[in-house]
Amino acid sequence: MKTIQFSIKPELFELFKNAQFGAVLLSDIVVKDVNHQELLQNLRRNIYSRLANSNKNISETKEYRLWGHVFSLLGLNIKQQLPSHLALYKRFKNNRELPKINTLVDIYNHISLLRQIPLGGHNVEGIDSISIDSTNGSEVYISKGKNELVEANRWAYMDNHNRVLTKDLVWRQSDVSLIGEETKSIFIPIDDITASFSNHQLANIVNEIVDVLSNFYNFKWSYGIINKYNQKILLTTANTEIISKPNNLLLPTPEINTSNSAISSFLDHKIDEVYPSKESLIEALKSGRRLSFYIGADATAPRLHLGHLIPVLKLKELQEMGHRLVFLIGDFTARIGDPTDKSAARVMLTEEEVNRNAKNFLEQIKKYIDFDSSSNPAEVVFNSTWNDQLSMSDVIDLSSNFTVQQMLERDMFAKRIKENKPIYLHEFLYPLLQGYDSVYMGVDGEFGGRDQTFNMLAGRTLAKNIAGIDKFVVTTHFLLSADGVNKMSKSIGNCIFIDDSPQDKYGKVMSIPDELIMHYYQLATQFDNERLILIEDELERGQPMDIKKKLAFEVVRLNDGESSAKEAQNYFEQTVQLGNRPNDAREVSKSELRLITGKDTIQVKELLILTKLCSSNSEAKRLCKSGAVEVNEIKATNPEQEYSLAEIDTIKAGKRNWIILVN
């Protein structure tokens, strides 16, 4: 166990009022019997791959501007010396590997490069406290064996022996705290002097450091944050055992499939548009470089539908080709609501509603995307991680990349103006914040339905202007609902949901009009063009019912498996085509209904709602008036018709939904 006191002189916060400093303390470090060089090589390759797509010079970056201001306040010139993380980035951009010092140092140097934040490291054996203080002119700084007297009023990391550990905060570590292969106790400072990270982001960086290190070493650790409100902390390493788990940064780089057949299959009939061009994407896919792609889904409703799966399954193909896949949960942007295709502003959701929806999203998407692969697992991120930290200044900077005219040209805004409906300012911010996701993650490409083109191109603009990344935008065709007019939409509710029962999926597909059969074959199955041509020929010769049943079977098979598809088809044939009561019809107790209503009689609309065959009086009235409701297998068209509970044996809504009433 090890204890270190870490403190900061209050005057530093007069210079940098929002600065914050993370601190990680590790003790009792024991080397694991693993191949360190192999893991380090994997770490280097994965991080270099993620950073390879930026074309910006270091002097053009936001980090350079912010740290240039920091250095000027410290009396330094950023043109003459760079903070440690930018020095690492410059080396990387010059096609030079980071220096190989030792395993511990190499690990935090590479994470510093990836996350673009200064990380240091001090051997703290024999040290009880570390402080950030201004020098008085008597302190000695030792570098490469040479003693140097530090001038007064320089900010430095210092220990309880009054030795300078790092002068000018983030530049040049002293020899006295150098880390070696046998070091047992380490203090790692995380210098967020520019206040670019939230507490949550700092905690994520710490977890990443600890997670990666735990694959190389056993140790005890502790973590804390210092800011202007909390200028002193005591770190004591806990006795908690670190359980190492696979980290994506340490996995071997997957072999990239660059075959013409794989690329051609990927760019099939489901792809709508590719920006800047399909040819440039093909060139990138053939290059052999591991690319990063993401898809985002706002957690505005608890369920995903078949339309969402079109871009998701395209991304799955890229994952199988060896590329990196990120699934983004828009927990922050969901609170605003995407105005796309909306004739009125969305209702803003609470954080609790969004979190509940996000949890449901992940459970559903795991059926299709492999998040546990031993070679190329997909990653999950939440955009509140970075959007929560955006300042007003940041939002203004993002806004400067677009014009009001660009926003007003969007169809739904033009329609609202014509209808004299309000457009709220926060709706203009939505594409900026979605676009910033691309900047923060530094991805090579984004996927979405074609209705998301404006938002994704906003991200392309920001990625190019801010990060120097020429991001691909890939849109897919969207799936129409059964009306043949509107896209399938969770906000409208006209959906075949991923978590619908196999019977409901099958039945909903069977309810689509015949003219949509080929549309669903093209977008809701994984059939290739040759198979689709044969199906279209068969459809032209007649027998749409049989072809639609094959479609329904394939949709269920793709989402729920072969056996579920067979059961769903049998259920449909028995209940809808033959009119038989299903063997597994749900039972509802008449006694419970009496307790709920307090009487022995019940209206049809009450019975429909209490048995959960519908959710509202209006829906119950619609079902009855359309002739879709049967009580004891006799049509009940009057929703207010009253029956004795004793005489009701069954109630049916539509052709597929039966309830048996039991005593």
From TrEMBL:
<keyword id="KW-0436">Ligase</keyword>
<dbReference type="InterPro" id="IPR024088">
    <property type="entry name" value="Tyr-tRNA-ligase_bac-type"/>
</dbReference>
<dbReference type="GO" id="GO:0006437">
    <property type="term" value="P:tyrosyl-tRNA aminoacylation"/>
</dbReference>
<dbReference type="Pfam" id="PF03483">
    <property type="entry name" value="B3_4"/>
</dbReference>
<keyword id="KW-0547">Nucleotide-binding</keyword>
<dbReference type="InterPro" id="IPR020825">
    <property type="entry name" value="Phe-tRNA_synthase-like_B3/B4"/>
</dbReference>
<dbReference type="InterPro" id="IPR002305">
    <property type="entry name" value="aa-tRNA-synth_Ic"/>
</dbReference>
<dbReference type="GO" id="GO:0004831">
    <property type="term" value="F:tyrosine-tRNA ligase activity"/>
</dbReference>
<protein>
    <recommendedName>
        <fullName>Tyrosine--tRNA ligase</fullName>
        <ecNumber>6.1.1.1</ecNumber>
    </recommendedName>
</protein>
<dbReference type="GO" id="GO:0005829">
    <property type="term" value="C:cytosol"/>
</dbReference>
<dbReference type="GO" id="GO:0003723">
    <property type="term" value="F:RNA binding"/>
</dbReference>
<dbReference type="InterPro" id="IPR036986">
    <property type="entry name" value="S4_RNA-bd_sf"/>
</dbReference>
<keyword id="KW-0067">ATP-binding</keyword>
<keyword id="KW-0694">RNA-binding</keyword>
<keyword id="KW-0030">Aminoacyl-tRNA synthetase</keyword>
<dbReference type="GO" id="GO:0004826">
    <property type="term" value="F:phenylalanine-tRNA ligase activity"/>
</dbReference>
<dbReference type="GO" id="GO:0005524">
    <property type="term" value="F:ATP binding"/>
</dbReference>
<dbReference type="Pfam" id="PF00579">
    <property type="entry name" value="tRNA-synt_1b"/>
</dbReference>
<dbReference type="InterPro" id="IPR014729">
    <property type="entry name" value="Rossmann-like_a/b/a_fold"/>
</dbReference>
<dbReference type="InterPro" id="IPR005146">
    <property type="entry name" value="B3/B4_tRNA-bd"/>
</dbReference>
<feature type="domain" description="B3/B4 tRNA-binding">
    <location>
        <begin position="67"/>
        <end position="191"/>
    </location>
</feature>
<dbReference type="InterPro" id="IPR002307">
    <property type="entry name" value="Tyr-tRNA-ligase"/>
</dbReference>
<keyword id="KW-0648">Protein biosynthesis</keyword>
